[in-house]
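User: Earlier you gave me the apo prediction for this protein. Now I'd like the version with calcium ion bound, so I can compare the two side by side. Same sequence as before, with the ligand SMILES added.
Assistant: Got it. Here's the input I'm using:
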Amino acid sequence: MAGNGNTDGEFSFSAAAARDALPRITTEKGAKSTTSSDVCHDDTASRGNFQTIDQLHSLQKKRSAPTTPLKEGGGVVMGTSGPTTPVSGESMLQSVSASLASLTRETGPKLIRGDPTSAAKVAHVPQTPTSVPAADVSDSSLKFTHVLHNLSPAELYEQAIKYEKGSFVTSTGALATLSGAKTGRSPKDKRVVKDETTASELWWGKGSPNIEMDEQSFLVNRERAVDYLNSLDKVFVNDQYLNWDPENRIKVRIVSARAYHSLFMHNMCIRATPEELENFGTPDFTIYNAGKFPCNRFTHYMTSSTSVDINLGRREMVILGTQYAGEMKKGLFGVMHYLMPKRKILSLHSGCNMGKDGDVALFFGLSGTGKTTLSTDHNRYLIGDDEHCWSETGVSNIEGGCYAKCIDLSREKEPDIWNAIKFGTVLENVVFDEHTREVDYTDKSVTENTRAAYPIEYIPNSKIPCVGPHPKNVILLACDAFGVLPPVSKLDLAQTMYHFISGYTALVAGTEEGVKEPKATFSACFGAAFIMLHPTKYAAMLAEKMQAQGATGWLVNTGWSGGSYGSGSRIKLAYTRKIIDAIHSGSLLNATYQKTEIFGLEIPNEVEGVPSEILEPMNAWEDKVVYKDTLLKLAGLFRNNFETFRSHKIGEDGKLTEEILAAGPNF
Ligand SMILES: Nc1ncnc2c1ncn2[C@@H]1O[C@H](COP(=O)(O)OP(=O)(O)O)[C@@H](O)[C@H]1O
Ligand SMILES: C=C(OP(=O)(O)O)C(=O)O
Ligand SMILES: [Ca+2]
Ligand SMILES: [Mn+2]
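And here is the structure of the complex with calcium ion:
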C-alpha cells in the first residue's frame, strides 16, 4: 500500500518531520510530569471530582430520584456506586428468580440486577446453595442472567438502539422499532389451557377464539420460553398494573427479551409509583415473552412456530415465535375478560371518553373502526382508547396507554395522536427518511398495520386517574365497506344487543390490487378474539347495565357511503366527528327520525354539520338497484351469522331474548 512508507501499518512521523518541528521541550530527567511546572496542561481550570474518563462519564449521569425503589448493593450486584440497603433489591431478584424457575431442573436461575456490560462483579445467588455442581445440574445453572427491572424509557431507548436491529430515534423523538416477521396478531396460534375448571367455564367450540391445549403442552412451551430467556445475558422485567379501579387492580409481570417489548408494556400498562413497586409482592399474572424464539411444532396442539398460550389456572401466558407487541396487550385483555366477569364486572373492547359535564361515552368496534380515533377528542377527556371495565361504580380503563393505528396519520385530522408521537412513544414498523428521520405515515412498505404506543398522559386532555361515572351513550362502530349501513342510527336496547352480539364490520384488505369485494367480519361483542366466556354472558351484563343507567345505543358507520368500496368513498372523518358531537351533546336524541327498510334502523333527518343527503344511505347511491342487492346481501350475512346464537337465552328475561332475535334484519 502506498503512503508514508510505513509497512507494518503503524503510523509514525518521519525523522525529517520530527527534526523540523517545534523545538524540543527538555524535561528534567526523572521529574514527575504531573507535578512539574514545566509540563503543559490543556486546561487551567481546577479539575472536578474525577480522576479518569470513566469517572467523568459517571458524573454526567446524575443520580436520579429512584424510578424504581430497588436499592443497590448489599450483595445485589450494581456497578460501582450506591448506598446499600439490600432488602428490596434482593427481594425483587428473588421474586424474578422464582418467576423464571425451571420446573424440571434447578429452581431459580442466578440473577444479577443491571446491564451485563456494567462493571458488576459480585454475584447474587438467590436460592442455590454453594456447592460443587452435581452431575445432574445443567450449564445454565452456572451462569448469571442480568435483570433489567422496570427501566426508564431513556434506558430502554439506549438498550434498544445499542442491541436491537431496526431501532432508531425519529425526528420527533419516538423510538422506531421493527416487530419482525409478524406485524399483527396471530389469532390462529392462540391456545387456552382446558382443565377441569375452564372446560365448563369458558366458551369452546364453533365461533370461539379459545382453541384448547392441555396443561402438559403448556408446560412444555413454558419451559421452552423460560429456558430461552434464562439462556440470554439479560432479560427485561416489567412489574405493572392493569385496571385503574383500585379495588380491582391486577398486578402483572412481563418478562421479555427485548427493550422494545419492555417499553411497549411500560407505555401500555399502568405504571407503578416507587412506593407501589416497593410493596409489589407476587404478581397476579405473568407473561413469558420469548419473542422470536419459536415453539416446537412437534409439541402437541402446535400448528405453526408461533404460539400464544394462556393458562388461567397458573395465571401465566407464554409467547413463542412472534415479536408483535400487541399479543401481550391483547393477551392480558383476554385474561381480564375472564377475571372481571367473575367479580360481576363487565370487560369491554371499547374506547371511552367523558365530556365536561361528566357524560361518558363508550366506543365499541373491531380493529380499525375508530375506537382510538374517536375517543381521542380534543373537546373531551380521554379515559381510554381500547379496553375498559364497567362495574357497579362506573367505568375504568384497564390500560395505562394507547395503541393508535398510524397509517395515513395526519397532523390536521388527528392532532392529538400526532403530537403524542414524541420521546417515549414506541413507533412500530413505520418507514422514515434515513437522514432526517421524518416518518412517512403513508408508507406501507413494512405493513399497513403501523402503530404508535404511548402513555395515556401524552394525550393532553386525558383523564387521570382513568375512571369515570356510568356511560350515557354506547356507540357501536362498524366500518361498513359495503356502504349500506347509515352513517348513524339510534338503537333500542334489543337492537343494541343484536348488533353487540353480531359485532359486524367489513373492511377491505388494505388497498391491495385485486381486492374489490369487502369482506364481512362478525366478531361477537366486537372482540371475539379476546372474550373468554360465551358472548351472551357479556351481552346480558351490558343489557342490564344499560337498562339500569338508561344509556342510549347508537350504530355509527365509519366506513363507506354512496357505494361499496371501489365505487363509493369512506365517510369523512370530519362528518363522523360531527355525528359523534351530536350524540354527546344530546341534540341527536331530540332529532326527528325515520326507519330504514330491512334493518329497521332509526335514522335522523338532520345532523348539524353533516350533509343530510348522506344520512339515508340509499340517497347517496346512484344505482338504487345495486344498493338494494348489496343491502340484502349484507342482511343475509347478518342472519347467517346470528344462527348460532338463536338457541341461547340472554339474561334472566326470556322477553329480551325474543326481542333481540326480532331486532335483526327483516326480509
Ligand atoms: N370516518 C371515519 N371515522 C373513523 N375513522 C376513520 C374515518 N375515516 C378514516 N378513518 C381512519 O380509520 C382508522 C381508525 O382506526 P383506529 O381509530 O385506530 O381504530 P381502532 O382503535 O378501533 O382499532 C384511523 O386510521 C382513522 O384515521
Ligand atoms: C391492537 C389491536 O387492537 P385495535 O386494532 O382494536 O386497536 C389488535 O387487535 O391487535
Ligand atoms: Ca420532541
Ligand atoms: Mn385502537
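For your comparison, keep in mind: The chain has 17 helices and 31 strands.
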